[in-house]
Amino acid sequence: MTVTADVADARTFEGVDLDVLATKIQTPFYAYSANAIRGRISGLRSAFHGLDLRICYAVKANSNIAILQLMAQQGVGADIVSLGEMQRSLKAGIPAACIVFSGVGKTGEEIGAALDAGVWRFNVESTDELALLQRIASARGVTARAAVRINPDVDAQTHAKISTGKAENKFGVSIDEARGWFAAAASMSHVRLDGLHAHIGSQILSLDPFREALRRVDDFRRQLEEAGHCIASVDIGGGLGVAYRRGVDRPIPIEDYAALVRETFADFGGTLVLEPGRYLVAEAGVLLTRAIRVKHGTDRSFLVVDAAMNDLLRPSLYDAWHEIVPLHDRSGTARYDVVGPVCETGDTFARDRALPTCEAGDLLLIGAAGAYGASMASTYNSRPLIAEVLLDDGRYAIIRRRQTFEEMIAGEQLAQAWHET
Ligand code: LLP
Fold it and tell me: What is the radius of gyration, based on Cα positions, of the chain?
């Protein structure tokens, strides 16, 4: 089931009664449906059936090692942007040979460790990074496989903070610059540059920007092949949007996206790579929270819940809409600002939202919280990281227990040992 369902459906999630679960696990906590994630993977695979396709899940969307383990079990690889994400992926059983390494700020240390681990390919984002990759690979006597991340200068028509494919964004290089890389490729003794990569942004709900970006990438791919370069893979990134707001967000049907990719790359004989993050996990996850109290202000009522912006940052950071579904039957409705306990006005999950009347102690579900929820959480206001639970056919497994106070401050120490520099 997906999480924008109505209250009756929402009470049980993946066969687990959420009310009962919330008596066993302290709120707030995240719950994810294993079947919903598997369903997304198989849907993606069938839409692309017959193509030489690799799915490399964007680990940043939800990096819990049990979620990565699920990806590994389904034969899904990883798109990583840090050593931490590489270590998580390897620990969860994703083979290095199924990992692509993206990111504009890869350090020498990270590049070296990824080469040592044997990652499949580097999505290289600058001339400086390309030179560094050559130097580090050469020092190790290995050949790095690389794709150039193209910045196709296309407006993804999404929130400015998650738009990555405009020339003004820090990501990738222009097609002209990339052309120069291929022209010089023969002189790079330890880098095999034979791939293209583009990721234009996230939560994209229209095919148009994809059509434009993919066309530019494919035109360039043809020109390169005509010039005698071998292009073994084209990585078209992630970005597929999901339904956060019932009746408003209309995600691109996966078949339409697949049809566009098929049509665009009809004469491409290499491997296509997808890097979906949100599409695989967002709607498979919910955040369970309990009302602490209702506070009646002078001109509005505040429903104060025990989850906050440190647990789910998206509404504060992007003004993102998430469905909020109280799991009780009380009659009557009211309008609330749904807020957390953190001392910031931005700690608001919804403004002036019409909901069934709520009271202290009520359990509420915040929908489509499986992506960029737990992975963006912090301990701001000294609130420990919350639990995460995986649900599978009526059973549950705790995949992250709630952090203790001691764990939260581990690594901190009183200033006692002073050193001269
Ligand atoms: N590939 C690359 C290189 C990326 O940078 C990203 C996401 C993805 C793939 C996966 O994109 P997706 O399929 O999830 O759209 N925190 C924001 C989203 C940031 C996305 C960053 N990059 C949010 O909560 O909306």
Answer: 23
Residue range 103-274, CATH number: 3.20.20.10
Distance 106 CA to ligand 1 centre (A): 17
| Architecture of domain 7-31+282-406 in this structure | Beta Barrel (2.40)
CA distances from 231 to 119, 129, 191 (A): 18, 20, 14
User: Which secondary-structure segment (H or E) carries 182?
Assistant: helix 175-183
CA atoms within a 13 Å half-sphere pointing along the CA-CB vector of 385: 17
Domain coordinates of the chain in residue numbers?
A: 7-31+282-406, 103-274
Q: Is residue 230 annotated as part of the catalytic site, yes or no? A: no
Mean pLDDT by runs of 10 across the 421 residues of the chain is 48 94 98 98 98 98 99 98 98 98 98 98 97 98 98 89 85 95 95 97 97 97 98 98 97 98 97 98 98 96 98 98 94 96 97 97 98 98 98 97 98 96 92
pTM score = 0.97
Ligand 1 site, CB within 6 A: 58, 61, 79, 102, 162, 199, 202-203, 237-240, 275-279, 314, 318, 371-372
Q: Which of 314, 304, 414 is nearest to 374 (CA)?
A: 314
